[in-house]
Design brief:
alpha+beta, Cytidine Deaminase, domain 2, 5-stranded mixed β-sheet, 4 helices, binds tetrahydrodeoxyuridine, EC 3.5.4.5, APOBEC/CMP_deaminase_Zn-bd, metal-binding, identical protein binding
């Protein structure tokens, strides 16, 4: 992906982060996804007093796109932003959701608070993934 597009996607993930509803962890996360047609969707982590009901930022963004009518495998790239010293890795539930809705080679941009960006991919995050192909 063009550097300008990556920078923009990362910026979207950073900018949405203040909307995070995270009173229990105080750990704000923002995510942004670009679709193959250029549309952008964002999401934040949304926590719940019943902790297991929490939704991560990545899933919020992906589920918003699917709710808007996008089909699986139409996501071009994902960016994640937290206020972490190290690159923020998506949780394993989000990784499995990425497997369902992305291609293995879909780039995932992880960020850290000093502004550095690490590019990985869905396959990089989930090697040997269980997918619809295995059903
Ligand atoms: N969280 C995310 O939203 N995305 C990640 O990649 C890691 C974790 C959220 C879930 C919870 O609200 C908080 O961060 C602490 O785990």
């Amino acid at each position: 992906m063009k550097q300008e597009k990556i920078d923009n996607l990362v910026e979207e993930a950073i900018n949405i982060k203040p909307n995070s509803y995270s009173p229990y962890s105080n750990f704000r996360v923002g995510a942004a996804i670009e679709m193959n047609d250029g549309e952008l969707f964002t999401g934040v982590n949304i926590e719940n007093v019943s902790f297991g009901a929490t939704n991560c930022a990545e899933r919020s963004a992906i589920f918003t796109a699917i709710s808007q009518g996008y089909q699986p495998k139409t996501i071009k790239a994902i960016a994640v932003s937290g206020d972490t010293d190290e690159f923020l890795p998506p949780c394993s539930i989000c990784r499995q959701v990425m497997v369902e809705f992305c291609e293995p080679e879909t780039p995932v941009y992880l960020t850290r608070k000093d502004g550095k960006v690490l590019e990985t991919s869905v396959e990089g995050l989930v090697p040997f993934a269980f997918s619809t192909m295995d059903m």
